[in-house]
Specification:
By secondary structure, this protein is an alpha+beta fold. The chain contains 16 helices and 18 strands. The longest helix has about 40 residues. The protein starts with a helix and ends in a 5-residue tail after the last helix.
Length: about 475
């Protein structure tokens, strides 16, 4: 009787243990099913392998990416077929083997340790055997441990970043083209970012400034090319969006008529080169397609030689004017448009008309005639020498000393109180290319000589 009771107790204990085992199995299966459902629902391709490297999970997103159905790889170690042409370890395989130190062998320069997870690594690589033309993937592998901390497998997730990498490649290609254009430009140019650091510094600017690009790229030292002390360049003011301060730094600045947010100025830079240089410079804001400010570009034109030539010309004109004004012989110069360019002091004294009244006008006839008519200089400017005889018949002759010149003698009744006798010469003025640019007319008052000749003639007895 006692044995029978003991047997019944033992049987009941086994049944309970069996029930608990079945229950645990059901829970595990339910848990596995739940986990598989979660992984299958991932929009991110993912797979899980066990300690034996065999695939436990392979989700639909990875089926779509790899073109390999889950049924082909489940419970196999063929996961490599999705990514490589030949068998080799995936990142998850290396972590399962506990040989993370071998990761550089397979992913040199392409991986980093994850900042978010322990025992996890991230990498980016191009997979030429994935898809028709290969795909760029960013992938992360992490160790999986059980509740007791024992390694039981690894999970690897993958993100297809092909489009992003293609866009990045296009951006880099565009930047390279831009760099090539800037670098090859004969116009000195530099570009700065929002942090005022130099992004581009082309060869033409290296030559102008004598500062190599490696000294300034990545720094905010571009001012050194132009100034002895640190101060903003025009590009800096555009980056700071302090457009109202531009005139404080650059006199004579003007806003471009062609481009928005573009300013032009010119000035002398005494610290540039041995003796300083004259530069004409243009600075423009750089914005993205969405209008976001990202930097500024500044181009510079060295026009020192032209400026020096202009200054020499101005000095030459000043010297010429001084010489011309110092003539004791009255003289004036007209341009191709018949307007007076020069009117010297001797002519002011003779005509009683100041240079201020005459220069820039075509009123020079007033000094000699009562009504408007051409002077001899006007006829030569119009290349109408044939008309000289019409206006000065019997009073002129071709000047022997200079080509394209005529001289004449005439009485001017409207000049002075009682009129004056003048001997005058007009000659064409040509530039260095032989182009006609104007004419000069000089005048000699011979009134006293004419009066003396007349008096002598009257005092000489007539022959019978």
């Amino acid at each position: 009787m006692k044995k029978s009771i003991k047997k019944n107790v033992d049987t009941g204990g086994n049944e309970k243990r069996l029930e608990r085992k079945v229950e645990r199995g059901n829970v595990r299966r339910e848990s596995d099913h739940l986990l598989q459902s979660i992984i299958q629902s991932f929009s991110i391709p993912a797979f899980v392998i066990g300690k034996d490297h065999k695939v436990i999970y392979w989700n639909r997103a990875l089926e779509h990416l790899s073109g390999i159905p889950m049924s082909e790889v489940m419970n196999t170690n063929k996961q490599w077929k999705a990514f490589y042409a030949e068998e080799r370890p995936c990142l998850a395989d290396l972590l399962v083997d506990g040989i993370s130190e071998r990761i550089p062998k397979w992913y040199e320069g392409k991986y980093v340790k994850s900042d978010l997870l322990d025992e996890a690594y991230e990498a980016t690589d191009f997979f030429p055997d994935l898809g028709e033309h290969g795909r760029w993937l960013r992938f992360t592998a992490a160790v999986i441990r059980d509740s007791k901390g024992r390694l039981i497998g690894a999970v690897e997730t993958l993100e297809d970043i092909t489009e992003k990498m293609s866009a990045e490649a296009l951006r880099r290609e565009g930047e390279q083209r831009l760099f090539s254009v800037i670098e090859g430009s004969p116009i000195p140019t530099f570009v700065i970012g929002l942090d005022h650091k130099v992004i581009y510094w082309n060869r033409a600017l290296e030559q102008l400034s004598k500062i190599p690009s490696e000294e300034v790229i990545g720094t905010s030292q571009h001012w050194r090319a132009f100034y002895a002390k640190e101060r903003p360049c025009m590009a800096d003011l555009l980056v700071n969006q302090t457009l109202e301060t531009i005139p404080e730094w650059y006199r004579g600045v003007s806003k471009s008529k062609m481009l928005d947010e573009t300013f032009e100025a010119e000035g002398f830079f005494p610290d540039l080169g041995e003796s300083g240089r004259w530069l004409r410079f243009t600075a423009a804001s750089i914005r993205t397609s969405k209008g976001i400010l990202v930097g500024a570009i500044e181009t510079l034109e060295d026009f020192t030689e032209r400026k020096n030539t202009e200054q020499r010309l101005v000095e030459s004109e000043k010297r010429l004017n001084s010489i011309f004004q110092g003539f004791s012989i009255p003289a004036f110069v007209v341009g191709k448009d018949h307007k007076v360019i020069l009117w010297n002091r001797a002519l002011e004294k003779l005509s009683k008309i100041t240079a201020e009244e005459m220069i820039g006008t075509n009123q020079h006839w007033r000094a000699f005639y009562g009504s408007e008519r051409p002077c001899m200089a006007d006829l030569l400017v119009d290349s109408a020498a044939k008309n000289v005889s019409k206006w000065y018949s019997g009073k002129y002759k071709k000047f022997d000393v200079t080509e394209d010149a005529y001289e004449a003698t005439d009485f001017f009744p409207d000049l002075g109180k009682k009129g004056r006798w003048l001997r005058f010469t007009a000659a064409i003025i040509r530039d260095s290319q032989g182009e006609l640019v104007g004419a000069v007319e000089t005048l000699e008052d011979i009134t006293e000589q004419k009066l003396a000749e007349a008096a002598l003639k009257e005092s000489t007895p007539k022959k019978s």
